[in-house]
Amino acid sequence: MAAINRDDVAHLARLAHIEMSAEELDRMAGELAVIVDSVKSVSEAAGDDVPATSHPIPLTNVFREDVVGHTFTAEQSLSGAPDAYEGRFKVPAILDED
Amino acid sequence: MTELNSTDSAALIRLSAAELARKLAAGEVTSVEITQAYLDRITAVDGGPRGVNAFLHVNTEEALAVAAEVDAIRAAGGTAAAELHELAGVPIAVKDLIVTVGQPTTAGSKILEGWHSPYDATVVKRLRDAKMPILGKTNLDEFAMGSSTEHSAYGPTRNPWDLERIPGGSGGGSAAAVAAFEAPLALGTDTGGSIRQPGAVTGTVGVKPTYGSVSRYGAIAMASSLDQIGPVSRTVLDSALLHQVIGGHDPHDSTSLPDALEDLVAAARLGNVDGMKIGIIKELHGEGYQAGVENRFNESLELLKQAGAEIVEVSCPNFKYALGAYYLIMPSEASSNLAKFDGVRYGLRVLPEQGPLTIERVMGATRAAGFGDEVKRRIILGTYALSAGYYDAYYGSAQKVRTLIQRDFEAAFARADVLISPTAPTTAFKLGEKLNDPLAMYLNDVATIPANMAGVPGLSLPGGLADEDGLPVGIQLLAPARQDARLYRVGAVLEQLLEAQWGGPLLDRAPSLTDSLPAVAAAGAPSNHGGSH
Lengths: 98, 533
Hints:
The structure holds 2 protein chains of 2 kinds.
Chain A: H1 6-15, H2 22-38, H3 74-77, E1 84-85, E2 88-89
Antiparallel strand pairs in A: 1-2
Chain B: H1 6-12, H2 17-26, H3 31-45, E1 55-58, H4 60-76, H5 78-82, E2 92-95, H6 122-129, E3 134-138, H7 172-179, E4 185-189, H8 196-202, E5 205-208, E6 229-233, H9 236-246, H10 264-270, E7 277-281, H11 291-306, E8 310-314, H12 322-337, H13 359-370, H14 373-385, H15 392-415, E9 418-422, H16 438-442, H17 449-454, E10 458-465, E11 472-478, H18 484-502, H19 519-523
Parallel strand pairs in B: 2-3, 2-4, 7-8, 7-9
Antiparallel strand pairs in B: 1-3, 4-6, 5-6, 5-10, 9-11, 10-11
C-alpha cells in the first residue's frame, strides 16, 4: 500500500472540508504516515474467501409501520441553527459568484 | 426535612446505588438528601485548577426537582409509590455525548459549544421514566475520540487516584465522577473501550453491552457499527441495575435487537461460577502488559479457580489485526458521521477572514476552528481509507478482519463460557505523557477493541492495585453476544472474593480529595489493613 504524503493530506482535507495551515499539513502528514504504516498488515490478514462483516450482529430489512410518528416543529429544527430566516436554515452563497 | 451533617453526607455518597435504593424504599433517607449530598461533593472536588473536572455541566435545579418529586410520591404512598422504579430517586451522571433536553450537549467539542438538543436520547428518556435525577453531563475526549480525556476541548479530567494522571477515555468524566463519589452511577459509551478502559484505570466497574441491546438513539455517533451505550458504577450489581433500566428494544434504532436479554440483576445476585469454564485469551496478556497488571490478573484467575471455575487457555490468533482494522473502520465511519457538523444546521459557524463567503469556505473555516487535532486526524484517515483506489485495501480488508475476529470468538466460546483478560495493558499514565504520540495512545485499547469488532459484551471490574505504582488494575470479562448475564454472574463472584481479600471496596484506598473528609474514616468503612494490595 502506498504511503500517505503531504499532498494527499492537503487533498483529503479539501474533500473533508477542513481548512489546514501549512504547519498543520506538515504535522498531520507525519502523524498519519506512522498510523497508516501501522495498519498496513490488515490488508494481508484475510484471503479472498473471507466475507466482509459490516455490522457485528446482522439484522436485515428493519422497517417501521408506515404511519406518521413524532416530528419536530420548524422551530425545534431551527433551534440550534447558526442562522435562520423565515422558517428556513440561512446559508452563505452556494456558488462562488454573488 | 432535617439537614444532614457533613459526616452523614460523606457516608451517604459512598453507598452503592443498590444500597441507596434500599434506604430510599425503607424511608431512611430522601432523594433530595442524596442528590444534594452528591451536588455538594461535586462543588467540593470537581472545580478549580486541581479539581477532578469530571463534569462539563451540573444540572442542579432539575436534579433536585426530580428528587423532590420522587420524595413526594413516596411520602404520599399508594399505587404511585408502589409503582416507583427500584432506582427512582438514585441520581446519575450522563456522558456528554448523549443528548438531553434542558441541558447543553457538547460532545467535548467546541463545534457544539452551547448547543441544546431538541430531543432526549432513548437511554435518557428511560432514566426519566425511572425518575432518576440527572446530576449533569460528564467530560470526554472530543466526540469520544481518545483514551485519556485529554482530547476534550474543555480541559482534561483528572484521575481521582492521582490528579496528575489520566482517568482513561473517552469516558474519563463518567468514570472519574463515579470513582470520586460525585455520582453513584453514570452512563458511558464504548466504541473501542471507552467505558471499560476508564473503569480499569479509575478502579470502577464499566460494561459494554452486546451491540444492539441498548439503544444508540441520541448518542452522537462516532462509529455506528461499533458504538454502544453502557453503565458505569462502583459495583457489579449497580451496573446490572442500570443496564436493566437502559436496555431493551427501541424502534428509533434500527440496529436495536428485538429480543430482551436475560435478567441481569438476578445474574449479579446469583453470582456463581461453580463448574463454569473461564478462558484466558493467550494473545491478551503477557508481553506488552505491565508487571503489576499481570500479577493482579493472575491473582483473579486463582480466586476464580478456588471458587470452582475451570480455567482453560484459548487462542485468538487474529486479534493481532484487531487494532489495525479498528483504526480503519472507526475513522471511516467517523469521517462520514461527522460530515454533518458543517456550520449549517447546528453548532458553530465560522466565517473565513478573507476571500468570498461561499458555503464551502465557511464549512472549511468552521470545521478547522471547531474540531481538535485528534478529530481532524481521524476524519482525514477515514476519508483516506474510503478513497477510490484504497477502499478495498483498507476498509474492505478491515471488514474481512472483523469476520476473522468473530470466528476467533466463536472458537473460543466453544471452549469457554466467558473469556478473561486484563482490561488495559497499563495503569493510568501521566497527563501529557502520550498526547503527542497518537499510536501509543491507541495501544491502550488493544484488549478492549476485539469485543466492539465482534459485537460481544464486555465488563471491566477492579482487580486491585499494581505493585509498582499503587494504581488500579482492571480485569475484563467477555461473553458471547446476548449473554451479558454471564458477565454479571462471574463479575459478582470475583468482586466479592477480591473485596474479601482487601477488607472492603478498592475505592476505600483512593485519596479523599478533601482534607476535611478522610476517605475511610468518613465512610465508616472497614479498616485499610486487610489484604496486601
